[in-house]
C-alpha cells in the first residue's frame, strides 16, 4: 500500500527532518508513530497526505508515486479542522458535497455516520457548542464518510479526557476492523 524510499525532507535550509528514510506498509495495517513534540511526526503525515513533497526520495501509494493530495487518503487533524460556521451535519457532509454526490446520498451517508459515532443528537450544533469528544467524532465522521483506504490521524485524542480518549481509541479499532483501511496514527503519548 505505502512504500517510502530514501525519503529526505527539510524545511527551508534547516537540518533534515528525514534523511534516507524508508518504510513499507501493507494494506490494512495499523501503525502508531510515537515520539516527542517537534520530532517530525506531523510532517510525516503531511508528506503521506501529499500536502508536502519530499526534498528527494519518493512515496508510492498503491503503486503510484505521490505528487500531491489523493482522493482516497483521509487526514484527521489534532485541532479537528472543523468549520466554525457550519453545523456538525454540514461539517460531516462537506467532503461528500465537494465530490458532487447527489443531495439524497449526501444526507443518507451523513446521517449514517452521525448514528455510527453516536452524535445524532448534536447534528444541528456548531463546533463551539460541542465537547472535545463530540468535535473529534465529527472530524472522524467527516473523514470516514469519504471511505478512505489510508487514514492518517494527527494526535487525534490529545486534548480529550481519559474516558473519552479510551472510548474513541476503541471506536477507531472497531472502525478499522469493519472498514479495513490502513491507519497511521501519530502521538507523543505512549498510552
3D structure, described in words:
- By secondary structure, the chain is of the alpha/beta class.
- The chain has a single domain (2-187), classed as P-loop containing nucleotide triphosphate hydrolases (Rossmann fold, 3-Layer(aba) Sandwich), CATH 3.40.50.300.
- The protein has helices at residues 41-48, 88-98, 103-116, 132-144, 162-179; strands at 2-9, 18-25, 30-34, 56-61, 64-65, 73-76, 150-154, 182-187.
- β1 and β2 (18-25) form a beta hairpin.
- α2 runs parallel beside α4 (132-144).
- The mean pLDDT is 89.
Give me a quick take on this structure.
Helix content is 34%, strand content 23%. The chain is α/β, with parallel strands linked by helices and 191 residues long. It has a single domain, classed as 3-Layer(aba) Sandwich (Rossmann fold).
Give structural attributes:
single chain; alpha/beta; 4-stranded antiparallel beta sheet; 34% helix
Largest sheet: 4 strands, antiparallel
Q: Give the class-level CATH name.
A: Alpha Beta
Q: Which class of secondary structure composition applies to the elements?
A: alpha/beta
The CATH topology assignment is Rossmann fold
User: What is the domain tally?
Assistant: 1
Going by CATH, the architecture would be: 3-Layer(aba) Sandwich
Q: Low-confidence parts lasting 5 or more residues at pLDDT below 50?
A: none
Q: What is the helix fraction of residues, given as a range?
A: 25-40%
Backbone shape: globular
Q: How confident overall, as mean pLDDT?
A: 89
Strand element count: 8
Q: CATH homologous superfamily name?
A: P-loop containing nucleotide triphosphate hydrolases
Radius of gyration: 17 Å
Distance between the termini: 27 Å
Amino acid at each position: 500500500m505505502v512504500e517510502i524510499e530514501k525519503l529526505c525532507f527539510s524545511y527551508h535550509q534547516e537540518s533534515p527532518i528525514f534523511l534516507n528514510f524508508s518504510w513499507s506498509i501493507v494494506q490494512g495495517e495499523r501503525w502508531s508513530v510515537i515520539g516527542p513534540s517537534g520530532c517530525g511526526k506531523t510532517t510525516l503525515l503531511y508528506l503521506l497526505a501529499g500536502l508536502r513533497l519530499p526534498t528527494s526520495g519518493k512515496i508510492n501509494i498503491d503503486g503510484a508515486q505521490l505528487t500531491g493530495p489523493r482522493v482516497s487518503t483521509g487526514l484527521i487533524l489534532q485541532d479537528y479542522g472543523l468549520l466554525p460556521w457550519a453545523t456538525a451535519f454540514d461539517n460531516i457532509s462537506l467532503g461528500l458535497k465537494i465530490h458532487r454526490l447527489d443531495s439524497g446520498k449526501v444526507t443518507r451517508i451523513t446521517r449514517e455516520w452521525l448514528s455510527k459515532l453516536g452524535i445524532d443528537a448534536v447534528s444541528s450544533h456548531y463546533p463551539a457548542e460541542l465537547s472535545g469528544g463530540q468535535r473529534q467524532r465529527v472530524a472522524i465522521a467527516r473523514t470516514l464518510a469519504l471511505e478512505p483506504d489510508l487514514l492518517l490521524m494527527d494526535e487525534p485524542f490529545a486534548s480529550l479526557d481519559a474516558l473519552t480518549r479510551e472510548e474513541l481509541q476503541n471506536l477507531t479499532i472497531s472502525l478499522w476492523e469493519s472498514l479495513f483501511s490502513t491507519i497511521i496514527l501519530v502521538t507523543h503519548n505512549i498510552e
